[in-house]
Amino acid sequence: MSPPVRDGLRQEVLAANLAIPEVGLATLTWGNVSGVDREAGVFVIKPSGVPYSDLTLEHLVTVRLSDGAVIDGDLRPSTDTETHRCLYLAFPSIGGVTHTHSTHAVAFAQARRDIPVLGTTHADTFNGPIPVTADLTAEQCAKDYEYNTGQVIVDTLGGDDQKAAEVPSALVAGHGPFTWGSSARKSLEHAIICEAVADIALHTMALSPAAPPPPHLLTRHYTRKHGPSAYYGNPDSTRATVRPG
After folding, report:
1. Is 60 exceeded by the pLDDT of residue 243?
2. What is the CA radius of gyration of the chain?
3. Which residues pair with 33 in a beta bridge?
4. pLDDT by residue (tens digit) across 46-63?
5. pLDDT at 227 over 90
6. Residue 90, SS3 per DSSP
7. DSSP string of 16-78?
């Protein structure tokens, strides 16, 4: 019998995983999304190696947050499960995590370069560069590799939950992007944006050694979507009523 997780979590995690190939973020099975239920102390994640075309609710695996034990599911969870768990434990604001091997973000990770803020498209979502981690040491690779992959992200952000909220993505050196957000769906959205701004940055850098726009412009774009002064969008656009004038 499945443990009690909040209503809709499994469906949300399934939908986010199925969207990975639809939006062009994955080759074969290279990618995974999870979502956490902190009250239940568990998270739900894609199983390892199952093609997206075959993935169903029954395939999803439920993992205990405290120790990584599988408590529901017949398949092995994603090999990146311990990375997800490390991020959930380190950053209380996170409700979902996405990992992909999307082309342009991976290029920055393999070059061991941050994705710089070169314009307002980046600043709309990320309040600063998307950082790249240090290389994992031989010891970190030899034991608890996946958990240590999460730990280098935590170290890169200084364990700062506010920083994680403002820049909801990091590049693991030589590996690729991990993104997160308030939900599984939001973490996937950040993965899509991370890949888009990496692509834009590479094109910009190919044209010229671009300098970022003035900080006041970048700050304006970030704060109009985030924080107490945000005014972008509507509270519930699906039920918004258009009025004359």
Report:
1. no
2. 18
3. 98
4. 999 999 999 999 999 999
5. no
6. helix
7. HHHHHHHTT--STT-EEEEEEETTTTEEEEPBTT--GGG--GGG-EEEETTT--EEE-SSPBP
Which DSSP state fits 138?
A: H
Residue 30, token pair as written in the block: 């290279």
Q: The tokens of 173 are what? A: 């050196």
pTM (predicted TM-score): 0.90
What positions carry a catalytic annotation? 124, 232
Quote the CA–CA distance of 225 and 222 in Å, as a whole number.
6
CATH number of 9-229: 3.40.225.10
Q: How far apart are CA 14 and CA 27, in angstroms?
A: 18
CA distances in angstroms from 233 to 230, 236, 237, 240, listed in the order given: 9, 8, 7, 10
CA–CA separation, 45 vs 64, rounded Å?
11
